[in-house]
Amino acid sequence: MTPDPEFSVRRAGPDDREDVYPLAREQATSFEPSPAGFATSFCVLISDPNALVLVATEAQTGQLIGYLLGFRHETFFADGPVGWVEEVHTRAGWRRGGVARALMLEFEHWAWEGGARLVALATRRAQSFYEAIGYEDSAVYLRKLAPE
């Protein structure tokens, strides 16, 4: 991936937890992540070989400006692995500046390198962005919340 002079994308490490948490809270619409739950999940996810947490940082200050969480898993329908993007979020002042595109390209590279046959995601607010970077409408996303 060609680095952007304004920001860079890399795999998240343990030191990124405190900076990713506020962005994850901004991203959440159905649930509100707790600091303790997030800390546990973050630790598990950054060490899972089938998960990828990426962060984008501003070149001059090193400030975290975006993140992506995605997975690679086996499927029957694709006759092999697929990549699934679970979360992508960019800090408000950096939207429409190529950050999400760079995060997606890095995730795609990781997924293809691992043999993924396709990369997919669900979106509520950014369909036009994903279509602009080559994704097509393919399914309806349904969910069922766990009983309380």
- Total domain units: 1
CA radius of gyration is 15 Å
Strand segment tally: 5
Overall 3D form: globular
Residues in β-strands, percent: 25-35%
By oligomeric state, this entry counts as single chain
CATH architecture: 3-Layer(aba) Sandwich
Helix run count:
4
Structural class: alpha+beta
Assign the CATH topology: Aminopeptidase
Kindly report the name of the CATH homologous superfamily: Gcn5-related N-acetyltransferase (GNAT)
Termini separation (Å)? 44 Å
In order across it, which strands form the biggest sheet?
Answer: 1-2-3-4-5
Average pLDDT: 92
Low-pLDDT sequence parts: none
Element order: H for helix, E for strand: EHHEEEHEH
Helix % is 25-40%
Summary keywords:
single chain, 148 residues, alpha+beta, Aminopeptidase, five-stranded mixed beta sheet, 4 helices, 5 strands, 26% strand
Folded structure, characterized:
This protein has 148 residues and is of the alpha+beta class. The protein has one domain (7-132): Gcn5-related N-acetyltransferase (GNAT) (Aminopeptidase). The protein is built from four helices and five strands; from the N terminus they run E-H-H-E-E-E-H-E-H. The chain has a five-stranded mixed sheet with strand order 1-2-3-4-5. A hairpin with a 5-residue loop joins strand 2 and strand 3. The radius of gyration is 15 Å and the shape is globular. The N and C termini lie far apart (44 Å).
